[in-house]
Amino acid sequence: MTTLVDYLARSADRAPDHVAVAHAGTSITYRELDIYSDVLAARLVRAGARPGERVVIGLPAGIDLVVSVWAVLKTGAAYVPIDSHSPPARRDLIIERIKPTAVIAAPHPTYGDRSVDVRFAYEEKQEPFARRNFAPGTPAYILHTSGSTGVPKGVVLTHRNATAFVDWAVDEFAIMATDRIAGHAPAHFDLSTLDLFGAAKASAALMPVPTRAKMFGAELARFIQDTKITLLYCVPTALTMLSQSASEENLISLRRILFAGEVCPPATLRTMASLTPGAAYTNLYGPTETNVCTFHHVTAPDRVKDSVPMGRPISGVRTWIEPSEGQEGRGELVVAGPTVAVGYWEDPEQTSKRFLELDDGRGYRTGDVVIQDAQGVLHFRGRSDRQVKTRGHRVELDEVESILRSHPAIEDAAVFAVADHAMTNLLIAAVTSKDATITSRQIRKDCARQLPAYAIPTAVSIMREFPLTSTGKVDRIELSNRLAITPSTQPVTNH
Amino acid sequence: MTVQEQIRRYVIDEMGWSGEQKTLTDDLDLIDHHVLDSLAVVELSTLLEQWYGFRVEATELVYANFNSLGAIAKYVEHKRVAVQ
Q: B39, A216: Cβ pair inside 8 Å?
């Protein structure tokens, strides 16, 4: 049985001089990545990192981040990536719950003496690091997703969960040492695991995408051209941005484009296909809790008219539908197999609610409502709860409402998702308040202390009271009429 | 109000600028400092269209035009001249 660490060991042995990571004009080889991560691992072991422990990483995309991820994995501890620009309150909450033995990030009072400087990795004077053996069932990383109570949920994934997906992906997409993989997703987003670990397994080069190229389609197009990216894995929102400003010449090196996280607009696929005549497109599906679990190769992206199916399970994974009452062939998708996570960090209640103990491993209730066609292909039809996607990020409307309700000037809050072609969904909030001085601007500003930017409602309407139904509940239909909005009846989410 | 002032007001009021106002200088890199994210750039470009009555083309949504208050002001001036 292998662990993720074996990927790097093999590449350092078999392709020591291949570029492992290139970023902002600097690059390191697999030999260097192996040495630097050994040096940092020795320092982390001294801080207490070992199997069963956790190390938080809060670095921006780049070589330091990749070195840190491998260093933590080598100690047997799990890495917990946090957005280096997330609101301090959210960051502190995660640190408090995770109780890390070390934090690799710019120093901050919250971390105290747990701070470890990534520059240790590059010091001349090195501490020896003895390779450790640990079981594939050891936690490798914990990723945080939106939680309905206002506290982010930490999804615990093991080495086996990750290798079950990465082994399949490297084989299915024939990823090779000559590939140049764009690191588009941030480390706290699960799309990043294919970039990080797929590259290491295949001895390919990982090219983390600079911030500015993630923000502007034209910059991303130029980055792809300049660095000759062959494989791009990103959310459809990024493809939409790219399709609006790229030329065929910009994208000539791309051979495969993978997308996940939300439903891809057919128009985006058609435009992208016209700009990349030789490239292949694949839709990947899977919540963070199951890793990628189904896939669909798009056979004629230039002629796509309807939304792309979720497809079929990847090897080793089984899926089935728990039929909804009175709805034949339609219901909640359940996923089981080696890619399914252990559960939520220190949350047995939520874990037992969503995860299943099966004879052959674990299963997960996705909350995604699907149908299966005559060919056995799965199609997404909506959510069974109040989770929505906005710009590829998963947001629980309950979490946003809970944060709004905790505001001193707010009594009650209702948040709606409204379909938007560029962002998938916009979040629109209505709140009740007796405070005549509070403004929507101030509320949005206050939200920014606790919520990531994508989860802050675009607009906040302040009312004296909400319309109620005959049973005394908030009348959300009447409320949406007053706001003159049409909420997404089937919230568009596909990941 | 100058273009710089109007955009500075937008960054402070709408983008939840948490730093001291004097640190928000005309040449502070708004992208590298994560003051503006991709949604904010799209929002801001829509506002510029409303405020100044020109169209922001997709090809103009580039780092060079949106990296600082100064760069945005320069871009706006350039567009206004072109419109006239």
A: no
Closest CB to A219 among B37, B40, B62: B62
Residue B82's Cβ-count burial label (10 Å; 0-12, 13-18, 19+) is exposed
Beta bridge partners of A214: none
Decide which of 3.40.50.300, 3.40.190.10, 3.30.300.30, 3.10.20.30 is the CATH code for A387-482: 3.30.300.30
Task: Return d(Cα A475, Cα A120) in angstroms, integer.
Answer: 57
Residue B2 has which token pair?
């100058």
What average pLDDT does the segment B43-52 reach?
A: 86
Which amino acid, residue A134? F
- pLDDT, tens digit, 9 for 90 and up, residues A44-83: 999 999 999 999 999 999 999 999 999 999 999 999 999 8
Cβ separation B63–A216 shorter than 8 A: yes
Nearest-Cα distance to chain A for B33, in Å, is: 9
The answer to whether B63 contacts A219, with C-beta atoms less than 8 Å apart, is yes
ipTM at complex level: 0.75
Question: Cα dihedral sign for A38, A288, A290, A235?
Answer: negative
d(CA A310, CA A333): 11
- Closest-CA distance, B44 to chain A, in angstroms, reads 13
* pLDDT over 60 at A29, yes or no: yes
Distance from CA of A133 to the nearest CA of B (A): 40
**Which among B16, B32, B58 has CB closest to A448?**
B16
Q: How far is CA A59 from CA A64, A68, A69, A200, A455, in A?
A: 7, 9, 10, 20, 21
Walk me through the domains of chain B, giving residue ranges and CATH numbers: 3-83 (1.10.1200.10)
Contact A230, A166 (CB under 8 A): no
Q: Which chain A residues are Cβ-neighbours of B18 within 8 angstroms? A: 448-449
